[in-house]
């Protein structure tokens, strides 16, 4: 029993010391989201209409990667901001992920 506790303590220390700080990853997502918004707004045909932004209650910006052949997966991360009565909130991290498999049977 003692061996399990020692193993769990070593594993916990390894995770805590080896994991990068969460704020560093989130700052990258915030910077990327800001760049995406700036690029959309720079092209009038792709810009988010001002009336839509004026009435928006929130905004989510995500980067999603999809890959697969037969078995597929997707995952991504981003930020979401809410718009309460007094202006825009600070960003919150969001993420998504999923997997799928396709089976196909051909009979002749």
What is the straight-line distance between the termini?
Answer: 59 Å
Question: What structural class do you assign from the helix and strand content?
Answer: alpha+beta
| Shape annotation | flat
Count every helix, treating DSSP H or I runs of 4 or more residues as helices: 3
- The assembly state of the depicted protein chains is single chain
Overall pLDDT confidence = 77
> What is the domain total for the residues?
1
Radius of gyration: 21 Å
Helix content: 40-55%
Describe the protein's architecture and organization.
This protein is α+β, with helices and mostly antiparallel strands. The chain has one domain (about 20-100). It contains three helices and three strands. It has helices at about 1-20, 20-40, 50-55, and strands at about 60-70, 70-80, 90-100. The protein has a three-stranded antiparallel β-sheet. The mean pLDDT is about 75.
What is this structure's SSE topology?
Layout: H1 2-18, H2 22-42, H3 50-55, E1 58-69, E2 71-82, E3 92-101
Antiparallel strand pairs: 1-2, 2-3
In short:
Helices cover 41% and strands 31% of the residues. It is α+β, with helices and mostly antiparallel strands and 108 residues long.
List key phrases describing it.
3-stranded antiparallel sheet, single chain, alpha+beta, 31% strand, 108 residues
């Amino acid at each position: 029993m003692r061996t399990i506790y020692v193993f769990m303590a070593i594993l916990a220390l390894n995770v805590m010391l080896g994991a990068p700080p969460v704020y560093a990853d989130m700052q990258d997502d915030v910077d990327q989201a800001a760049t995406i918004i700036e690029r959309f707004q720079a092209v009038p045909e792709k810009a988010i209409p001002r009336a839509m932004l004026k009435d928006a209650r929130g905004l989510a910006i995500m980067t999603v990667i999809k890959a697969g052949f037969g078995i597929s997966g997707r995952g991504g991360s981003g930020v979401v901001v809410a718009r309460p009565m007094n202006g825009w909130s600070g960003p919150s991290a969001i993420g998504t992920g999923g997997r799928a498999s396709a089976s196909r049977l051909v009979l002749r």
